[in-house]
Design brief:
Low-confidence stretches: 616-620
Helix content: 40-55%
GO biological process, one term: cell motility
Strand order of the largest sheet: 2-1-4-3
Radius of gyration: 34 Å
GO molecular function: SH3 domain binding
Keywords: Apoptosis, Phagocytosis, SH3-binding
InterPro entries: ARM-like (IPR011989), ARM-type_fold (IPR016024), ELMO_ARM (IPR024574), ELMO_dom (IPR006816), ELMO_domain-containing (IPR050868), PH-like_dom_sf (IPR011993), PH_domain (IPR001849)
Pfam family, one: ELMO_ARM
Length: 719
């Protein structure tokens, strides 16, 4: 007979004693349970003890988390959190260096536990840590333990980062700027500054002043991957906290120092594989850089601005004045105005008498003008060839340079997400972005020539403008999906993907769609579906057995803490636990926590998850909502919360968990995988019917013959 729901069978250990096997009644007060355990071992003062998990992080058992104890859990009797907090509080003030160091080491370990942290902070323990840092000159093991303890205590959000003193901050900054300090101390110091910068603009100003960009670039150039990662994290925190003007200044300075080339060569193309955290920071750096274009993109042209009018005139002059024998300034005002209008029409402006009107639309606003000017100045031959070549065509077949440039700029802004907030979890960046200064402008220069090439291939007229730009968008999108490593490679691939290739791809996709809509084929699809869905279910469960590395994300910042979750090979238990950076596939035995599949009640996703309800709403959390899911187990108030690293992982995990719960797989990835498998299976089944049209209805059965005399009679065998 199974035990009652409120009773769990557990073991309790104590050093030097025989373990106790007890049935823990969850309705019984924890103090009474401790009294019984202590009495069994003849220990007085039961209030001085507490229960901890014997494995993993040794979390203290409290009334709030006791429901998480499972059948078969192993606990241990330990000193109570308040007693331990007092002992370590006294220990870190000891004059004996060994005692002080050991106390700080134990403090760094125990501070991960929220119950202990609360007790230690309530004794004003953080003040003692401040004193050790501010007054001490040690840069060895003791300091490393102190900074680790401080970081762990601050993770619980009991104390605001804004309470830190300037003296403390400057001391942390000094460790970052030292050349002869241990790398672990520098990593912890960089992490502390990264946490602190977003909380206050005053802190931002202080750190930006004290930790120069040159110093951060020095840390980025070390071979220690973790130190490199922490330096990048602080750089990103500074960029995200800065005002638009400050961010522009910082990015200009980084450009002068060739940070892109360094990242392209030494981080993206290093011998070590790129971690998820670094990939995220590179994505953010790319996003921040591209978003510097947002102000110009959202600014309409001012026809009264002398600077903007001069830029506009420079386009006309670069294209036509060199071919005119007589300068335009020598003509009368009326003649000059007429000539300019004609030349602006040849440039492809819709409103040739007042071309500034074409640039009043924002987006793309002045960004389109900037791109056109960049193209004319940096590739003058290509610019002149584009304009003059189309000037000599018939009116209907000329490709309008200005109109195409304005639309192309808008397309590039949409594809590259210019002006959109950074995602908290995304890792998708373009390697070629870091291989080129003026990336957006250089990409425009390649793509505007692609527009002209595609226009000619399509033999387009003015009425076909939207069709041409739609093809160009498809060419760019398909090529970017291949993740070219340089702009040169992008240029080669996008030019190979000409209009005829696009037509072939579209035709193939259309043909595939048409042939799969025939009635017999649809019936065959339905017959194949159950078998292929079972195949997808098995793949999802196999993925859960392999496991995935998840990150803990708070509302304050992207966390460094990692945890791993995987399904047991017999599909009966989910194992999970915290892991260190760099561990990719921990053994199932090393994951201390577990949830029996039989205890899982339901799966929650998105806004339904408890950990998304705790977060503040905002654009920055939209991507977190799309990746969040929770497993409700035992009773509804206890959940295991997940933030998937990618949408792909979200789909596989939610599908796998639904399979375990006996429900349908609902993710968009299921339909995609099913379509791919059905397509492959149908092609194999219909291979013999290649180029044979399949009728919508089966052919009629012919009438039986009038006689069967054509059949041979074998009933009389020859003797």
């Amino acid at each position: 007979m199974p035990p009652p729901k409120d009773v769990v069978k557990i073991a309790i250990q104590m050093v030097g004693a025989i373990p106790q096997l007890i049935e823990l009644q969850q309705t019984k007060p924890l103090a009474a349970v401790l009294k019984d355990v202590c009495d069994a071992w003849s220990l007085p003062n039961a209030e001085q003890y507490a229960l901890q998990y014997a494995d993993g992080r040794h979390t203290y058992i409290t009334e709030s988390n006791r429901r998480e104890i499972k059948n078969g859990s192993i606990l241990r009797l330990a000193t109570s959190p308040d007693q331990e907090a007092q002992r370590l509080y006294n220990g870190i003030q000891s004059k004996n260096v060994d005692v002080k160091t050991d106390s700080l080491k134990k403090l760094a370990s125990l501070s991960q536990d929220v119950t202990f942290a609360q007790e230690f902070i309530s004794r004003n323990g953080l003040k003692q840590i401040y004193s050790i840092v501010e007054e001490g000159n040690d840069t060895g093991e003791m300091l490393a333990h102190t900074l680790k303890a401080f970081t762990e205590l601050m993770e619980h959000d009991f104390v605001s980062w804004e309470n830190l003193s300037t003296v403390f901050i400057k001391k942390i900054v000094s460790y970052v700027n030292m050349n002869t300090v241990d790398s672990s101390i520098q990593q912890l110091s960089l992490s502390i500054l990264e946490n602190m910068v977003p909380t206050s603009h005053l802190f931002f100003e202080l750190v930006r002043k004290e930790v120069t960009l040159d110093r951060l670039l020095t840390h980025l150039q070390v071979t220690n991957a973790q130190l490199q990662l922490k330096a990048m994290a602080l750089l990103i925190a500074l960029l995200l906290t800065a005002t638009d003007a400050e961010r522009q200044d910082m990015m200009d300075y980084l450009r002068e120092k060739n940070i892109r080339q360094f990242i392209h060569k030494n981080i993206i193309h290093s011998s070590e594989p790129l971690g998820d955290e670094m990939a995220h920071y590179l994505y953010v750096l790319q996003s921040v850089s591209l978003n510097l274009c947002e102000r110009r993109m959202r600014t309409s042209m001012d026809p009264y601005s002398q600077e903007q009018r001069e830029l506009l005139q420079s386009l006309r002059q670069a294209a036509f004045e060199s071919e005119n024998e007589v300068p335009a300034s020598n003509y009368s005002t009326e003649r000059r105005r007429s000539l300019c209008a004609k030349e602006f029409r040849k440039l492809g402006f819709m409103n040739n008498s007042n071309p500034a009107e074409d640039l009043r639309r924002a987006p793309p606003g002045l960004l389109a003008l900037d791109n056109m000017v960049y193209f004319s100045r940096n590739t003058p031959n290509a610019y002149s060839r584009f304009v003059l070549e189309n000037s000599s065509r018939e009116d209907k077949h000329e490709c309008p340079f200005a109109r195409s440039s304005i639309q192309l700029t808008l397309i590039l802004c949409e594809i590259l997400h210019v002006g959109e907030p950074c995602s908290e979890t995304a890792q998708a960046f373009y390697p070629m972005f870091f291989g080129q200064d003026h990336f957006f402008e250089e990409l425009f220069c390649i793509c505007i020539q692609l527009v002209n090439k595609t226009w000619k291939e399509m033999r387009a007229t003015q009425e076909d403008f939207d069709k041409v730009m739609q093809v160009v968008r498809e060419q760019i999108t398909r090529t970017l999906a291949l993740k070219p490593t340089s702009l040169e490679l992008f240029k080669t691939r996008v030019n190979v993907l000409n209009y005829s290739e696009i037509l072939k791809l579209r035709q193939t996709e259309r043909h595939h769609q048409e042939e799969t809509l025939a009635v017999p084929v649809l019936e065959l699809r339905e017959r194949l579906k159950p078998e292929l869905l079972e195949l997808i279910r098995q793949q999802r469960l196999l993925h859960l057995c392999e496991g995935t590395l998840f990150r803990k994300i708070s509302s304050r910042r992207r966390q460094d803490k990692l945890w791993y979750c995987r399904l047991s090979p017999n599909h009966k238990v989910l194992h999970y636990g915290d892991v260190e950076e760099g561990v990719h596939s921990p053994a199932i035995e090393s994951l201390p926590e577990k949830i029996p599949v039989s205890d899982m009640k339901m799966l929650l996703v998105g806004k339904e998850c408890p950990h998304t309800k705790e977060k503040s709403s905002g654009k920055q959390n939209k991507d977190v909502l799309e990746l969040a899911f929770s497993i409700v187990h035992d009773v509804e108030e206890y959940c295991l919360n997940f933030i998937a690293p990618t949408r792909y992982e979200f789909c596989l995990w939610t599908d796998g968990l639904n399979v375990l719960l006996g429900k349908e797989m609902t993710s968009e990835r299921t339909q995609t995988d099913l379509d791919v498998l059905l397509s492959m299976e149908l092609k194999l089944r219909l291979l013999d019917l290649e180029n044979i049209s399949i009728p919508d209805t089966p052919p009629p059965i012919p009438k039986p013959p009038s006689n069967l005399n054509f059949c041979s009679d074998f009933s009389h065998a020859e003797q």
